[in-house]
Amino acid sequence: MKQSIKLIWASLFFTMTLPATANDSPYGAPNQSYERFADYAFFRGEWEASITIIRPDGARQDIDAKSRITAFYHGDGQTLQTCFRAPGFFSTSLRAYDSTADLWRAHFLNAQLQRWSGFTIRKVGDTMETLVPGGFSGTEAFDVKTIEQNITDTSFTSNVFRRAHGSDTWVQTYEMRYEKLPENPNGPQC
Hints:
single chain, mainly beta, 11 strands, globular
C-alpha cells in the first residue's frame, strides 16, 4: 500500500512539474502554462538579417554582409537563446520572462569583444521593445533601444535607437530586416 501511494505521489509530482510544451520544432516551444512564455515563439528558427546604418543626418547605408541569427527555446519552454553571427562577429543572449516585473530579462555575451550586459524587453501591443542601459557592453555613455515590429511568421523589422545618458531623445542608428530561413534539420547550431 505504501509503495502504491509513493508511486501515485511521484506520478502526480512529475506530471505537475514538467513543462507543458508542444515541441513541434527542433527549435523548442514555449511552455504553455503561461501565455507570456510564447512572446518569442515567432523568433524560433533560423533568420538572415539585412542591416542599414542610419547616419545622424538621416542618410542610409546598407551593409553588404548579411547576419545569421538562430533562436530557440530551451527544454523548460521558458528560456530563449539567440545566437547572432556576422563576418568576424558572434554574440549570444539568454532571455526569460519575469512574471513579477511583467517583462523579459536577458543577458548578452560577446566574449571576443569582451562585452556583456543585462537588458529588459517588454511586449507593447504588437511590438517587442528592448532597453539596453549602457549599450551592449553595459559601460557605454549611451543606452540602446530596439523595437521589433511588423512581425509575421517569415519576417520582421528591428529598429535600433541610441540616446546619450541624461537625454530623453532617441535617435535611430540602424534598421535590421529579418527574413526567415529554412530550419536546420539537425536543430539549432550556435
